[in-house]
Write a structure and sequence with these properties.
Elements lengths: L1 H9 L9 H9 L7 H14 L8 E6 L2 E6 L1 H9 L4 E10 L3 E8 L5 E9 L7 E10 L5 E6 L12 H9 L1 H17 L7 E6 L9 E6 L6 E3 L10 H4 L6 H15 L5 H11 L8 H28 L1
Antiparallel strand pairs: 1-2, 2-8, 3-6, 4-5, 6-7, 8-9, 9-10
Helix pairs in contact: 1-2, 3-10, 4-6, 5-6, 8-10
Amino acid sequence: MANNQNQLLAQGMTFGELTQEDVTTIRQTLAKDCNDSQFKLFMSIAKSSGANPVMNEIYPAVRSGQLTVQFAVEYFVRKAKESPGYAGHDVQLVHDNDEFKMHQEQDEEGRYYAVIDEHSWAFPRGKVIGGYAIAYREGKKPFTVVMEVDEVEHFKKSNIGMQKTMWTNYFNDMFKKHMLRRALKAAYELNYDDEVTVGEAQGPGNQDEFQQNRRDITPNQDVIEHGNSKPDNNPDQQQEQKPSKVDELKSQMKSLFTQLGITTNDGIKEYLKKHAPDVNPGTQKGLIAINQLLEMHVEMQQAQSADEDALD
């Protein structure tokens, strides 16, 4: 019975090279901890971004009832390879006993960039103390990310079980992936968040509310809060009825559609039918999910526009 339900749920979720059988397999394995709504949202994000779960480019995690959608470094590598001017990348760890020297230079526009002068080693190399990743792009200076181990040690103390486990047991690999992701994102204007967290609020009477937290995997987190506008100092205006959270989300959705160049009702309906067929735009939960997809498409459009400008 459960298998039949998964097969029915998988209908309409195929995209790219993913077959319905693939989607069913994803539901039973990678997304086994998701409820049906979370699975639909995860697949909508995967489809919208073009990230393939079967190729380990994107995967879901559920913690305390919250869905976190994570993009793997493999996704950013593929997007970089698909970008104009891709010329490869490199990532290395620096150990205690390595010979390592670097300096900074300025390009024609006055921007600084790092240059590795020397990196040589012999065994034993000692423990890892830092590292660097370089993203190469035709017609541009190499983009280099240089980091010390201290900058990522906090991941070993993460309250996210899997993240803590991976950084503790596979530190070298995780450190290299972290640096490479940052270098590729910067060099190729890949404006995608490493993680998108969407989960149900737990407060009484707010079971339909969602909290969104978009964050890059760095010490800093940019938390997007809905409905926390500051009160106006005018007493008369304070007495006026404030717009509901749903109204604010609808206004945000309209603005995002405008940024995408979609300004007609038919265009909006076509977009929702294509990208969010199972999401109800009449609910707060649905509006937040739709706005999340819209924001991702706006970022993708901006990245594409930046690439086109660079080629002019």
